[in-house]
Design goal:
- This protein is α+β, with helices and mostly antiparallel strands.
- The chain folds into two domains: 2-94, 2-Layer Sandwich (Alpha-Beta Plaits); 106-269, Alpha-Beta Plaits, CATH 3.30.70.
- Helix content is 21%, strand content 29%.
- It is built from six helices and twelve strands.
- It has helices spanning 26-38, 74-79, 136-146, 186-190, 221-233, 239-248, and strands at residues 2-9, 45-46, 55-64, 86-94, 106-115, 128-130, 148-151, 166-178, 197-198, 203-204, 206-214, 263-269.
- Strands 1, 2, 3, 4, 5, 6, 7, 8, 11 and 12 form a ten-stranded mixed sheet that branches. Strands 9-10 form a two-stranded antiparallel sheet.
- Strand 9 and strand 10 (203-204) form a beta hairpin.
- Helix 3 runs antiparallel to helix 5 and helix 3 runs parallel beside helix 6.
Length: 270
């Protein structure tokens, strides 16, 4: 019987999803738990790789198993064999030809930032810290430039072996919410907001989530997109610059690759 499952993990201590020789992977941890649960070696195939340090809320995997465990009880059984930073959230029977990787139509990743004068320990493991205000309007305008089918080699990190760098990005959104803090920063107070301030032109004492939905992604693509949008928020780049960067494929002019800790695979659509 083939099964489809949704896996969530906190990626800080892993070398990524895929098994590697240089460290512990999420795949290795999950497959060991499946083997203990079903009593035989069990291979798990994911919708795609996530890199070292990247998190997932909705990674989809498939695996084959012969078991008497009811399908709705499989997550409970598997989770007893998993560490606290990996969890099976859902499991269902799938058709024999279902493939978590090749049947995926699109994926949504979220990159998270927080804007504050000082580090906030509760957010540090999952957010990039920015210490200056950002121009939200410029970020949102640049986000729309990225949408569509383009050659995205400008947003690909070195080391990739992919030959075709054309991808379709269906949606890029930039959302901002205030941080609830037990103090009022001078900048926030000046803007009459006790929990931070943000408008279309500037934001601070707040959290920014950049969500990107596409049919596929290049190596570090979302992290570079996020870095490019931050550069727009800092006025180091303009939306017109981003358009030119995509047209010319100039990686050197795009933003830097932000840290892996801010990236999370939210969901996969089939």
């Amino acid at each position: 019987m083939r099964y489809r499952a949704v896996i969530s993990y906190f990626g800080e201590r892993y070398v990524g999803w895929q098994r590697q020789l240089n460290g512990l992977s999420v795949q290795e941890v999950l497959e060991k738990a499946l083997e203990k649960t079903f009593g035989v070696p069990t291979q798990a195939t994911a919708s795609g790789r996530t890199d070292a340090g990247v998190h997932a809320l909705g990674q989809v995997v498939h695996f084959d198993a012969e078991t008497s465990i009811p399908v709705d009880k499989i997550p409970f059984a598997v989770n007893t064999e998993l560490p606290d930073d990996v969890s099976m959230l859902y499991c269902e029977e799938a058709t024999p030809d279902f493939n978590a990787r090749f049947n995926a139509k699109c994926k949504t990743y979220r990159y998270s930032l927080y804007l504050a004068k000082h580090p906030l320990p509760m957010l540090e493991p999952t957010h990039e810290h920015i210490v200056v205000p950002l121009d939200l309007n410029a970020m949102k305008e640049a986000a729309k430039v990225i949408e569509g089918e383009h050659d995205f080699k400008c947003f690909e990190a070195s080391g990739s072996v992919v030959k075709n760098t054309v991808r379709t990005v269906y949606d890029v959104t930039v959302e901002c919410t205030s941080l609830t803090q037990p103090f009022v920063s001078p900048m926030s107070a000046e803007n009459g907001n006790l929990n931070g301030y943000f408008d279309e032109n500037k934001a601070f004492d707040c959290e920014i989530n950049i969500s990107v939905t596409g049919n596929g992604f290049l190596y570090n693509m979302v992290r570079i997109i996020a870095g490019t949008l931050v550069y727009c928020g800092l006025h180091k780049l303009t939306p017109d610059d981003v358009k030119h960067i995509i047209e010319t494929g100039d990686r050197k002019r795009a933003g830097k690759t932000l840290s892996a800790k801010g990236l999370c695979l939210l969901k996969v659509v089939y």
